[in-house]
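Changelog note: in this version the structure field was regenerated for every chain. One regenerated record is shown below for reference.
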Amino acid sequence: MSKLANYLNQYIVGNVFDRPSICRQYSTDRSILQISPRLVVFPESSEDIQALLRFTNQLAMRNFRLPVTLRGTGLDKTGAAIGDGLIISTEKLNHIEELDLRGRLVRAQPGVTLGQLNSALALQGLTLPIDYDPRATLGGLIANCPNDDISDKYGGVFHYIERAEVVLSNGDLIQLGPMTARNLAPKLAASNFEGALYRRLTQLLDRHGDTIVNRTMSHFDAAGYANVTKIREQRVTNLLPLMFASQGTLAVISDVILRVEPLPSATRHLAVTLPDAKALLRFLNFVQELDPRSLKFYDLRIVQEAAKYGNQPILLNPEFDRGWLVIVSFDNHKWRLNKNLQHCLDVLPPGTFAIEENLENHDAFSEFYSALMSFLNDNQAGERAPVADDVYVPNFRLEDFFAGLHTLEETLSLDLPMFGSFSTSNYNVRPLVDLSSLDGRKLAITFLRQYSDLVISCEGSLTGGSPEGRVKSLSTSGVLSDAELKLYREIKAAFDPNNILNPDVKLGANLKDTLRHLRTTERAGLQTP
């Protein structure tokens, strides 16, 4: 590896390292896995990425395995940002290159974080309307395509990326975006790798037409390459949708053009506590009809647990120790906003605790989020690891899901308070497990299997809010039909014939390897939602 690092450093502007201390730093993401890479690379341009992929592709053609894993800020919760080969970090590809105010378009590199982008855009009265971790990079948002808390109203990252520049597995640089039949014709006739890619994809789209139609008719989830359904729409061909939720298995994004929006009106919140699931669901279904910006709820046990460490939100009525906390937010114009808030208050049962956000208590509303952070980072034995975050459960089956979760708590002797977004049907449960012990690791896998069964029994999906990576694929591999698996494998082979781009993620993950890479130490740093 030392010779490889020295060799590559001669051909790229960025840096290649094989130092154990650096590799160890990039051996974990937010998942329950740990895999130490052989090399970590910090490219500074598209040309650097091209050189790296040409090299690894040539090695693969000589039967030398050096898989490539893309990494932004390491926030992936499924083990897709770690690998045992070459890690390409986008930390230095973090420039906002152009801003078109009239067209509301931005060109940026994949390492730009959501927080950096929105801070810069706010100076111009613009924003990328995604309610997600501000540390997430644009490349990571595309690779994982998370179902963020306001995506029901604003569409999520998928609807804002207009075009992308990507490096293919052989090192070729191409542009992805919508093309008419006239623009597609020269691509199909080209004798290069891009031409072969378009020809193969055209053939498999025709050959797997029935499978694609069936996929279109079912609920979307991010398993496999489900966005294959969006390649052909309205006489336009566009390969860009395949990049979303692909987790770096098809190509390397090196530049994006995205559309942004004007900053919305001021957002106001309403906090409500409800005693039981029936009252909760009645209220949530009513509020959803008012088109809120976000509609989130939390098991009150989360707040009670946080209170043990001194983090009790002063806005909450301390008498409630069981039940649910609902946080509603609206960003309509002032008249509509006030009317919506009043509608919410009017439907609540008499005596229900509710409090509106105002100038006096504005800062105190942040304590609800602080309570969740305290819960996720308490100092009990073990950690609240994201074993299976971001699952989809349809709203009409939530009551059954609550009951099944209670049964699971009794079966595994775990407290499993739930939190998530009703507007996006995206939910999280964080079991407290001790990954340093063999029993704890067994418990994590047992929980994953039984929780997966519960989600599926409630007509939900483990990958409704984020893709499968290595961890979730332990439970999703049996969900995809043989026809879907064949289609997705052909897509992977078309983009990456030598299987060098994150080969052990998504379709390539297997139980034996995943279990072998389970972490045995607590992950350093803050656990976040």
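Spot check on this record: The radius of gyration is 23 Å. The mean pLDDT is 93.
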